[in-house]
């Protein structure tokens, strides 16, 4: 029997949209090599080892665990750890090309970067998720040690192992992703209501306008809802 293509198409739509959380829009003429803010751009004196840092981006949020001494552990899709063991190469700031290939190959790494490289100019919220877990917050040192133990190459899965799963496991002992769950519900609504196809297309167009990313990375976001509609 022929498999229903709707779940697969929905999963692909989800992957493409959630990918935009990590892509950093580059100004024209930069060649994709815009440097992060200079050291000292952020006041790290208010951060404590084990803190959960989150950086709101245009559509979603990126997460990390502060390790102290201006170092943040965070999970990012990255193709490089799967093709080389050269630590100097891997430690370089992840480019959009490396990130996209990592998503496609479902590979990632938990890496340690400076606060500047982690946040890339965005505003930082500290322990903002603690209110959702109440008494489940682990000790700060335990959270930092968990993050340090996971540093290195890992599998990437939008639904099961993204940057939010990483930090919630480290600080709360439970790997969950609220933003993925919320977006899954949105995708389900699109599948159930074919009239939402137009809205999803407009969402894809808005993503291009707001983020300024290359059409080659966002066009699938626009056309996949048509696949869902046709498959329904």
The helix fraction, in percent, is: 40-55%
Query: What is the element string, with H for helices and E for strands?
Result: HEEEHHEHEHHEHHHH
Largest sheet: 6 strands, antiparallel
Sheet with most strands: strand arrangement: 5-1-2-3-4-6
Number of strands: 6
Provide the fold topology.
Elements lengths: L4 H15 L32 E5 L4 E8 L2 E7 L9 H5 L4 H10 L1 E8 H5 L5 E2 L3 H4 L6 H10 L2 E4 L7 H10 L5 H15 L4 H15 L3 H17 L1
Antiparallel strand pairs: 1-2, 1-5, 2-3, 3-4, 4-6
Helix pairs in contact: 1-8, 1-10, 6-7, 9-10
What does this structure look like?
With 232 residues, the chain is an alpha+beta fold. It has 2 domains: 51-176, endopeptidase domain like (from Nostoc punctiforme) (endopeptidase fold (from Nostoc punctiforme), Alpha-Beta Complex); 193-231. Helices cover 46% and strands 15% of the residues. The chain is built from 10 helices and 6 strands. The protein has helices at 5-19, 87-91, 96-105, 115-119, 130-133, 140-149, 163-172, 178-192, 197-211, 215-231; strands at residues 52-56, 61-68, 71-77, 107-114, 125-126, 152-155. A 6-stranded antiparallel β-sheet has the order 5-1-2-3-4-6. The longest helix has 17 residues, at 215-231. It starts with a helix and ends with a helix. Keywords: Acyltransferase, Cytoplasm, Endoplasmic reticulum, Endosome, Lipid metabolism, Membrane, Sensory transduction, Signal, Transferase, Transmembrane, Transmembrane helix, Vision. It is a single-pass membrane protein. Pathway: Cofactor metabolism; retinol metabolism. Pfam families: LRAT (PF04970). Its EC number is 2.3.1.135.
């Amino acid at each position: 029997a022929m498999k229903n293509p709707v779940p697969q198409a929905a999963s692909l739509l989800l992957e493409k949209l959630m990918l935009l959380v990590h892509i950093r829009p580059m100004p024209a003429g930069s060649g994709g090599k815009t440097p992060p803010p200079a050291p000292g751009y952020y006041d790290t004196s208010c951060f404590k080892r084990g803190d959960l840092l989150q950086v709101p981006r245009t559509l979603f949020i990126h997460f990390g665990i502060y390790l102290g001494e201006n170092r943040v552990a965070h999970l990012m899709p990255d193709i490089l750890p799967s093709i080389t063991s050269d630590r100097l190469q891997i430690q370089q700031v992840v480019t959009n090309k490396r990130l996209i290939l990592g998503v496609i190959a479902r590979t990632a790494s938990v890496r340690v970067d400076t606060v500047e490289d982690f946040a890339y100019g965005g505003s930082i919220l500290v322990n903002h998720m603690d209110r959702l877990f109440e008494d489940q917050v682990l000790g700060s040192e335990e959270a930092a040690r968990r993050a340090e133990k996971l540093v290195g190459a890992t599998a990437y899965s939008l639904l099961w192992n993204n940057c939010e799963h990483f930090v919630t496991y480290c600080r709360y002992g439970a790997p969950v992703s609220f933003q993925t769950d919320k977006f899954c519900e949105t995708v389900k609504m699109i599948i159930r209501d074919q009239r939402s196809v137009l809205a999803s297309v407009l969402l894809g167009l808005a993503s291009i306008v707001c983020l300024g990313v290359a059409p080659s990375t966002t066009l699938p976001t626009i056309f996949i809802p048509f696949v869902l509609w046709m498959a329904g």
